[in-house]
Amino acid sequence: MFTGIVTETGEVLDIRREGDWTIRIAAQATRRDLVPGASVACHGICLTVVALSQAGTSDWFEIQVSDFTANATNVHNWQRGSQINLERSLRVGDELGGHIVTGHIDGLATVRERISVSDSIRFRLACPSEFGRYLPAKASVALNGVSLTITEADDANDYSDGSGTDFVFGVNIIPHTRKVTGWGRTEVGDTLNLEIDPLARYVERLWSHHDT
Predict the structure, then answer these.
(1) Which of these, 198, 190, 154, 155, lies nearest to 173 by C-alpha position?
(2) Among 47, 84, 92, 195, which has the minimal tally of Cβ within 10 Å of its Cβ?
(3) Which run of H or of E encompasses 207?
(4) Residues near 211 by Cβ (< 8 Å), separated by ≥ 6?
(5) Which of 98, 105, 130 has the alpha carbon at shortest distance from 41?
(6) Measuring CA to CA, which residue among 125, 124, 111 is closest to residue 187?
(7) In terms of C-beta density within 10 A (0-12 exposed, 13-18 middle, 19 or more buried), how is residue 117 classed?
């Protein structure tokens, strides 16, 4: 479990395809005290550490990704040199600075617009219409592992049945977030891993079984 507060950005050093994907990522803060079997959110995807650099060498760790996960997320777009948002798993007693994030990606969102507004940048993104009912304005969403607040949502249409065109929503990125995450390099056309606030799913599930 995570909170969407990125620890640091790591750099993809190597990608090997031997059955599953094995990806080596350079990172200092994330590598510290890491052990094989630990979970790390990489661009918001909860992945398992399978190998680590030895003491006294450059800091890196390796994660393993199945074809299913790679095809369902933006892992298939990663390449050597890609900058990846990283977050260590939440420990009991840690500050919950963002919102509850599981690392289980629901789908992809595509950047449609990037607009400078004072010191911030406003992004408008499109995602499958089926997610629209979970993304009202002021709600939380995780995009590439970053906990963000939805600033605008296309509520002109009813997306509750999953029909219609893509759902469009917006987020605002302040300078600090651009500096410590990959958002500063995000451009129109990029695809981002999207995770809905899991509390929204739980509420919907409970309500759908409510005895009226």
Answers:
(1) 190
(2) 92
(3) helix 198-208
(4) none
(5) 105
(6) 111
(7) exposed
Q: DSSP states of 9-46 as a string?
A: EEEEEEEEEESEEEEEEE-STTTTT--TT-EEEETTEE
Tell me the CA distances in angstroms from 50 to 31, 47, 63, one per residue in order: 12, 9, 5
- Structure tokens that stand for 37 in this block: 């079997």
In order along its 212 residues, the chain shows pLDDT tens digits of 899 999 999 999 999 998 899 999 999 999 999 999 999 999 999 999 999 998 778 899 999 999 999 999 999 999 999 999 999 998 887 887 889 899 999 999 999 999 999 999 999 999 999 999 899 999 999 999 999 999 999 865 554 555 557 899 999 999 999 999 999 999 999 999 999 998 877 777 666 666 55
